[in-house]
Design a protein that fits this description.
Layout: E1 10-20, E2 37-45, E3 51-53, H1 59-62, H2 75-91, E4 99-103, H3 109-114, E5 119-124, H4 127-135, E6 140-142, H5 147-157, E7 160-166, H6 175-185, E8 186-195, H7 199-204, E9 217-218
Parallel strand pairs: 4-5, 4-7, 5-6, 7-8
Antiparallel strand pairs: 1-2, 2-3, 3-9
Helix pairs in contact: 5-6
Length: 220
């Protein structure tokens, strides 16, 4: 069934067979070990028009301590995040005690831009990336964001003025729990900002390279 609306009216539109994980690079001394492979195909929901993977790889397999995608490795992405951070700080942060929480904060590139203007907190399950963020001065929690973690954060540091999530809302199987967690964490007049890749680019520009196991959803 569709992970967002619950409909069973799904149609498989593309099947790429079985594939290894996109960011699971193999060490030279492990080349003789067969890689884990998983089905890679997408369904279209005729009820809500969401495009989504047919199979889900356990998040613990993908987002572990050896996760190697770093935001800071992409100069255009860093520049984009700096611009977004400035926009958040200028438009939504009103006092130094306000709190900006980022879901999927990776190496802290976005929060690092505004940590001197307001309170910030990152949340990310990849231990190696959170260590980089913490070393740069960005407070970061290791874990998967959802209602339980949102309630813990609320108790410990208070409600969030802004919750931001970039390139992560397409990666989460239990997406309803995440949205509920955002609702629980936000202050009454808080703001939630998230960015995801758009299925229009995937179809219109032939961007099939966006289809891999981390991307469970392709929003229309």
């Amino acid at each position: 069934t569709c992970r967002v609306c619950g409909s069973g009216d799904l149609v498989k539109v593309l099947d790429l067979g079985t594939m290894p994980l996109a960011n699971a690079f193999v060490a030279k001394d492990s080349l003789h070990v067969p890689e884990l492979t998983f089905p890679l195909a997408i369904n279209f929901c005729n009820a809500c028009f969401l495009v989504q993977l047919t199979h889900v790889v356990d998040a613990e397999v993908i987002f572990n301590k050896d996760y190697y995608y770093a935001t800071s490795a992409s100069k255009p992405l860093v520049e984009h995040f700096r611009a977004l951070a400035d926009e958040i700080a200028n438009d939504f942060v009103h006092a130094p005690q306000d709190l900006v929480v980022e879901i999927g904060s990776n190496d802290g590139s976005l929060l690092n831009r505004i940590k001197d203007r307001t309170r910030v907190l990152g949340v990310d399950p990849a231990e190696n990336m959170t260590k980089i963020a913490i070393a740069s001065g960005v407070p970061t929690r290791v874990g998967y964001f959802g209602t339980a973690l949102a309630q813990d954060i609320h108790k410990e540091v208070g409600a969030a003025t802004v919750v931001v999530a970039n390139n992560v809302m397409a990666h989460i199987d239990d997406i309803r729990d995440v949205f509920q967690g955002v609702s629980d964490l936000l202050a009454p007049n808080g703001t939630f900002i998230f960015e995801v890749h758009w299925v229009g680019n995937l179809v219109g520009d032939g961007g099939f390279d966006q289809i891999y196991h981390e991307h469970l959803y392709y929003y229309s």
